[in-house]
């Protein structure tokens, strides 16, 4: 099994020990070094964007309980529509994570 990971903090993971770990385990791990701030290359940002858009389409939340309910509703929608989430990883910037 190959573990893929994105090293978002190049200063820490890009250190000598991080590079050594990556070299010793090339058959088991693939490291992708990203700049410290690169939301377009972070697959979690695609989920955040989808969630924010989904919430903007609902009635404005009046309290924390309503917000929680709307977030859970949108996340359940995504569970029922895995193809929608798969599309995140088809974007050129985050194909590395697929």
Task: Please explain how this structure is put together.
The protein is mainly α and 98 residues long. The protein has two domains: 3-37; 40-97, no CATH class. It is built from five helices and two strands; from the N terminus they run βααβααα. A two-stranded parallel sheet has the order 1-2.
Quick rundown:
With 98 residues, the chain is mainly α. 52% of the residues lie in helices and 10% in strands.
How are the SSEs ordered, and which strands pair?
Layout: E1 3-7, H1 10-13, H2 16-24, E2 29-33, H3 43-56, H4 64-80, H5 82-88
Parallel strand pairs: 1-2
Arrangement of strands in the largest sheet = 1-2
Low-confidence stretches: 1-5, 7-11
SSE class: mainly alpha
Alpha plus pi helix count? 5
Largest sheet: 2 strands, parallel
Using the CA coordinates, give the radius of gyration: 17 Å
Measured as a percent range, the helix fraction is 40-55%
β content, as a range?
5-15%
The whole-number mean of residue pLDDT values reads 76
What is the string of helix and strand elements? Answer: EHHEHHH
* Number of domains as seen in the coordinates: 2
Entry keywords:
2 strands, 98 residues, single chain, elongated, 5 helices, two-stranded parallel ribbon, 52% helix, mainly alpha
């Amino acid at each position: 099994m190959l573990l893929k990971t994105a090293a978002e903090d190049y200063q820490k993971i890009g250190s000598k020990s991080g590079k050594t770990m990556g070299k010793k385990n090339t058959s088991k791990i693939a490291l992708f070094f990203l700049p410290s701030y690169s939301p377009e290359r972070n697959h979690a940002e695609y989920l955040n964007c989808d969630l924010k858009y989904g919430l903007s389409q609902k009635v404005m939340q009046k309290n924390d309980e309503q917000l929680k309910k709307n977030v859970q509703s949108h996340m359940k929608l995504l569970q029922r529509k895995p193809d929608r989430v798969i599309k995140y990883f088809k974007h050129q910037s985050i194909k590395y994570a697929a």
